[in-house]
Amino acid sequence: MRGLRLLTAFAVLLATYLLGSYFIGMSAVADVPYYALLSLGRVALVYFIALGVGLAFGILAATNKHAERVLVPLFDIGQSVPILGYFPIVLTFLIIAFPHGVGNEIGAEFLLFTAMEWDIFFGVVGAVKAIPSSVEEAARGYGFSGTNHLRYVVLPAVLPALLSASVLAWNDGWTFDAASEFVQFANSAGSLTTYSVTGLGYYITSSLNAGNLEASWFGVLVMGEIIFISNQLIWHNLQNRVAKHKPVLASVIREDFQSPLRLRRRFRRLLNFRFRQSSQIVRVRDQLSTRVVAAVFVVVLLLVGFLVYARLPIGALQGFVTALTRSGGQLSNLPLYSLFTIGRLFAAYITCVGITLLCAVLAVTKKGFARYFYPLYDLGRSVPYLAIFLPLFVTLHASLSVGISQEIASFILLMLAMIWYLLFNVVTAARALPTELTEVSAVFGVRGWKRVTDIILPAVLPAFITGSLLAWGGGWNVVIYSEYVQLAGQSTPYVLPGLGYLLDNAAYVLGDVPLVIFFLFIMSGIVILLERFVWRRLLKRVERFGVEFN
Amino acid sequence: MSAAPILSIKDIVKIFRNGSEVKAIDDVSFDVNLNEFICIIGPSGCGKSTLLRIIAGLETADSGQILFQGQPKTKPSPKVTMVFQTFGLLPWKTAMENVELPMEVSGIEKAEARARADRYLKMVGLGMFENAYPHDCSGGMRQRIGVARALALGPEVLLLDEPFSALDELTAKSLRVLLLQIWGDPSLPTNNFVMVTHNVEEAVMMADRIIVMSPRPGRVVGELKVPLPRPRFEHLRDPLFFDTVDKLMAMLSSNVEEQM
After folding, report:
1. Does the CB of B114 have a partner CB in chain A at under 8 Å?
2. Is the dihedral of CA A454, A457, A463, A468 positive or negative?
């Protein structure tokens, strides 16, 4: 069975390759297997590093109060700052520090690491904290300690959460692979600089630069196939095996008699993990006190102040005024551009919400829905959205104006980055509705629209808010990528007015580190404020009205 | 029997198809007479809850019929309502709103619905808690809301699915008293109760007649008229009470032995 699936996977990849070499040309695709292996190696290597770090620090944070007080806020801030925002600075620093291409490699891996680490860390912390006190007490009562405790209690308890976090991390890693392997920008003098490491992401972008759009799409296809295949062959398999003796996370999904398909039950089981997982992640992050956030802000603010001051000895205030009026920095555009970026995210978010709510209603009212939904979900989740952005933009640009194509490509990119969190959480919650609520609506004749507004929507609301929180986090991460496009053969980049553009412009064109930090600070501030004062608040308010899953 | 039964369960068969076929209910028939309190008792897996759901119209039988006031009944109706084991309250609605919702959807005017919800919540002793949410209520209070919701529609038949099994014994005791009061109150329209339970003493304490079921396949293996006079709470130490309990236990366990 397993061998057959492996064989099918190879056959699919081989067929893709042959078709590619037939339609695009042998010379264009010849190196693709090599590139794919390089990227696979890179993603896998970084995954194992992230796993090690996540396990070690996660278990430490969950079991030691002092460590928790330091680590959880640290990781929370790490994941609140949009990765792609500080990537240029880090990359520049690494390239100067490690010449001869080593810096490029470390930079790519650093970006992958930051894309993978947070899910794993918070997954581990959540799972360790979720070990029932009775299990802990029993373990202590029987004298488990140290390694024994770790081996027989903690690690088995963490395993399911670790696997679901791994799936997320693995997919995110691949998605960011496209952004990490190829960075290209023109400085103020107009000369083009390219930092790259070889791999599939490199292939996608460099083909585009060489004017070979088909090859670029081909690279996206291969990447999508690799993601899908590794999900099916590795993660689903492991999750199945673990699901048999999951120790901590209780199943909340009802068994209904109409599901003879083993496949469906399997899907539901592992999906259930992920749903629990993401709400757990949110809950753990919730423990971070506002005071710590405030403290870190003050530190960053001081740092920015210091840097501005150091650069302009006349005085921090005057320096700031100068920065405000400096034309290249475009500080005066900041408020408006921030609103543009938020608007872009909001448009994508609203569309995602519409689709998600429709799916939630269908999940409750249509029996066969899950049979189509979960395979489609798996397929959609495999789309490497960052990789798709550039070829999509160029394709659209063939028939539309620059601005419109970039807006549309950005919209699709954002939707792909946001929708899975929402869909996943909400549909799983809708399907996990306790039987009794369904029966109550039937007995008392709650039907049609009333059933949607009074039963289904309130029931999925907590999952909806959890999903929204995660979706906005994911969206902020990629919006930067879409607002600034530099391709070969053009002296100025294609830009969308927005915070991400300001950031990239400050980093690449101006090379103004304080300005970059300042923009980053603004962006993280918006991310954290939205999260803390919108989503967390809402979540707290609705959580007590949540359905009790027995 | 002079009057026609309010509810007739006729030759009900229910098969669960889950890969293989399992006969959950095999040819079950009995009548519920006017103003009668019926208990269905049996071990888990005997299909008693499924039977109750078929009566409610939540499940469909593979063959057989439910006759309500002489007419076949296959769908849920406001004339036959249900009290759930784990209450089935909407956590995002207050006690008042939970009770009002079924009336709203069945087309009862808002003001009338409010007045009725108010009356029934007072009747179950929750006059002070109309604006409380379920998560602020104890288990006993939640089930009181569930009872008020089921009664507010003024049904002819009230179905109760192990309504006390999620409660502690003391709370259960007071709720039993409340339900018997409601059942015996001729000023209320609801005087026909069908309750599923696995608690022998509870069945003897409350029912006029007890239907005994056995599992695999679920069928009726006996029927017992409870000979104790009412109010039953004055006879809980009668030898007759213990005799009835013993008799019921014997009916249940003879069947268990058969199974082994």
Report:
1. no
2. negative
